[in-house]
Amino acid sequence: MATAGAQSEPQVQDRYGRSAAGLKVPKHPTWCPGCGNYAIWGAIKLGLEGTKYPKEKTVICYDVGCSGNMADFNAYYGFHSLHGRALPAAVGTKLANHELKILVVIGDGGCYGEGGTHFLNLMRGNHDICILVHDNHRYSLTTGQMSPTTDKGIKTKSTPEGSIEEPMNPMAIAISNHATFIAREFAGNIPKLGSRITEGLNHVGFSLIDVLQPCPVFNPAQSYDWYREHMIQLEDEGHDPSDRLKAWKQATRSDKLPIGLFVKEEKPAYHQQVSELATGPLVNKNIASVDLASLVKDFQ
Ligand SMILES: Cc1ncc(C[n+]2csc(CCOP(=O)(O)OP(=O)(O)O)c2C)c(N)n1
Ligand code: SF4
Fold it and tell me: Positions of the region Disordered (predicted)?
């Protein structure tokens, strides 16, 4: 009970009139009611906790978009970037301190569109980062334009007569481009997505988890129910994640939407092959004695 004369804390409210009092996060999420980002947010918490890795050695790199707004709602170290650049920021963070676990939170627009070349090239290097793509098949923050994963013929704000382009197939691209951990999961199954995130974070090397995320505002047709009707589980198909050819067949089938672990391969990660990093993380090195002048001269 407040004592006479004591100053009460100011109650900051979000746009739905909710107060953040009692929450263990800095702010309330601002996503629309029914948005799949709420479920993914919950799964990320489970996934990070599942690694049992020290919180102070975990970093989340966020991109632009509705998904990236999560930067305000997590009590983890993070870096908020824009337009696909969360991907190189994640690699830079890992190479500066390879004792960190790195999760990237990014949308399909940011990862497969704006950051598309980063996406392609990080796989080739087997960089040890876990990329979680909130794949709602739209650029949603900017009010629902088509994205690289929008199906052909779909009408959006930027394609009023129906989209002309074929959709990108992220699973097939990752399978053919050396990615060592490739999964697709559904926002509607939080425990399964959570354990997949743990698995992706524990995988040493590049991991991609494409999450089918309902956006009821700009993609109402692909609802929670729609996904449940169209999905099948790779586990039920007896899929072996060490078989890349069978993974390709599953990724390119058009009758159903396979969910689960497509590929898992053990291979040295990029940072494990850089000789300079063998003696410890770069951040721990004493660079005071490094002769930068002669280094700069080499490049002149
Ligand atoms: C150079 C540039 N390109 C595009 C934008 C606009 N932009 C900001 S967020 C965004 C959409 C991001 O979509 P996605 O990554 O799929 O995330 P979502 O909002 O769907 O979670 C776009 C196009 C911009 N501000 N500047
Ligand atoms: S626009 Fe779509 S993705 Fe963005 S917060 Fe709303 S429901 Fe979620």
Answer: 143-166
pLDDT in tens, 28-77: 888 999 999 999 999 999 999 999 999 999 999 999 999 999 998 888 99
Atom of ligand 1 nearest to the CA of 107: 15
Task: Provide the strand spans (E) within 42-89.
Answer: 58-62, 77-80
Q: Say which residue the tokens 């799949």 belong to.
A: 36
Ligand 1 mutation pick, 139, 150, 218, max ligand atoms within 8 A of CB: 139
Query: What are the tens digits of pLDDT across the range 115-137?
Result: 999 999 999 999 999 999 999 99
Ligand nearest to the CA of 141: 1
Q: Which ligand is nearest to the CA of 135?
A: 1
Q: Which CATH number fits domain 37-270: 3.40.50.300, 3.90.470.20, 3.40.50.970, 3.40.50.10490?
A: 3.40.50.970
The answer to whether 209 and 236 have CB atoms below 8 angstroms apart is no
> Which atom of ligand 1 is closest in space to residue 64's alpha carbon?
9
Q: Is the pLDDT of residue 139 over 80?
A: yes
